[in-house]
Design goal:
This protein is of the alpha/beta class. It has one domain (3-237): Rossmann fold (3-Layer(aba) Sandwich), CATH 3.40.50.300. It has helices at residues 16-29, 46-49, 60-65, 98-108, 125-132, 145-160, 175-181, 187-194, 206-213, 226-235, 244-247; strands spanning 3-8, 34-38, 75-76, 83-86, 114-118, 136-141, 166-173, 197-203. Strands 3-4-2-5-1-6-7-8 form an eight-stranded mixed β-sheet, with helices on both faces. A hairpin with a 6-residue loop joins strand 3 and strand 4 (83-86). The longest helix has 16 residues, at 145-160. The protein is globular and about 55 Å long. It starts with a strand and ends with a helix.
């Protein structure tokens, strides 16, 4: 049975799309068929990260409206076997409604082990569409108050629409900066404020974003990518400890 997971964040700039791609790469390396669905209409970016931006003809809205066969709007990542993308429309006006998005995902999900839906930041209509199609959620947060507040808003909105299976990804974590800010006593305080169970912590590593922005996801891998590998393993039901060395935690 496929897993349909929405990746969401309460505010922009958390690195959610980079997390989506990094996780997808590690799942594909586990020989899973993974479909990424970009729901950020007007701001799509997963095509660049997967190196297929020059191949695009159709997108989510074309498939949803019957403007093309659904398979025509799904593109294979050039750098990673088993990884596929359904891109978002270039225009925000072509945003797909929640009910239509759910029907679209339901029509293709059985062809994949995982469907990862990259939601636009916030709790607007784009989030509604992305969340409607999902069974589970990963909430991406940075360990700072504005991001934590946004993550809590996402958690409450998910609960309101009956999506209770949500877990937290703390992204761009720097132990040095976390201590210097001195806002939270420890990471447990961040987790408690988000009211969401933790599934993984990803370090603040510029190489992660650089590789994704160059469209090299799957071809190059920084040492810190072990944190994505661990999250993928946890999604598969494995009991994997957090890689403290990659986070600078002794």
């Amino acid at each position: 049975m496929s897993k349909v997971i929405v990746l969401a964040s309460g505010k922009g700039g958390t690195g959610k799309s980079t997390v989506t791609v990094g996780l997808a790469v590690q799942l594909a390396k586990l020989n899973k068929r993974v479909l990424l669905v970009d729901c950020d209409s007007g701001m799509r970016g997963l095509d660049i990260m997967l190196g297929v931006e020059n191949d695009l003809v159709y997108d989510v809205s074309d498939a949803a409206s019957g403007g093309c066969d659904t398979e025509a709007a799904i593109y294979s990542a050039q750098s990673m076997y088993g990884l596929y993308l359904m891109p978002a429309p270039l225009s925000a006006e072509d945003e797909v409604s929640p009910s239509v998005m759910k029907d679209l995902i339901d029509s293709v999900k059985d062809n994949y082990d995982y469907v990862l839906i990259d939601s636009p930041a916030g709790t607007g209509s784009g989030f509604d569409a992305a969340a409607a199609a999902a069974d589970e959620a990963l909430i991406v947060v940075n360990p700072e108050p504005t991001s934590v507040r946004g993550a809590l808003n996402i958690r409450l909105k998910l609960s309101k629409i009956g999506k209770e299976d949500a877990r937290l990804v703390i992204n761009r974590f720097s132990l040095k900066r976390f201590k210097e800010m001195g806002i939270y006593k420890d990471l447990d305080a961040v987790i408690d404020a988000c009211q969401t169970q933790l599934i993984g912590i990803i370090p603040d590593d510029p190489k992660i974003a650089a590789i994704a922005q160059r469209g090299e996801a799957g071809t190059r891998e920084p040492k810190s990518a072990i944190t994505f590998k661990n999250i993928a393993a946890r999604l598969e039901g494995e009991n994997v400890m957090i890689a403290k060395k990659a986070l600078g935690i002794k």
